[in-house]
C-alpha cells in the first residue's frame, strides 16, 4: 500500500469485514456494518485530530478518552436486547 490513502483504505475494509463477522455471529447492529465502520472511523479520527491539533488543551487522560470513545461506539453500534 505505497499509494497515499491505501493503508487507511485497507484498515477500513478490515474494520468493515470485522463488523460483518460480528453481525454474522448473531450480534445485531443498529446500522449496516459499513455504516458502523464509517461512524467509528469518523469518531476515532476526530478524537485523534483533537489530541494532535490541540495539545495545549487540558485533555483528560488520553487512555481514558480512547477507551471511552471505543465504549461509546460499541454501545451505539450494538442493538440492545
Please give a quick description of this structure:
The protein has 81 residues and is an all-alpha fold. The protein is 69% helix and 0% strand.
Descriptive report:
With 81 residues, the protein is mainly alpha-helical. The chain contains three helices and no strands. The protein has helices at residues 6-24, 33-53, 62-77. Helix 1 (6-24) crosses helix 2 (33-53) and helix 2 packs antiparallel against helix 3 (62-77). The longest helix is centred in the middle third of the chain and has 21 residues, at 33-53.
Element order: H for helix, E for strand: HHH
- Look at the helices and sheets and give the structural class: mainly alpha
Largest sheet: none
Low-pLDDT stretches are none
Kindly estimate the percentage of residues that lie in beta strands according to DSSP: under 5%
Q: Describe the oligomeric state of these chains in a short phrase.
A: single chain
Number of strands: 0
Query: Which outline best applies?
Result: flat
Distance between the termini: 40 Å
How many helix segments?
Answer: 3
Q: Bin the helical content.
A: 55-70%
Determine Rg (CA atoms, Å). Answer: 15 Å
- What average pLDDT do the residues reach? 92
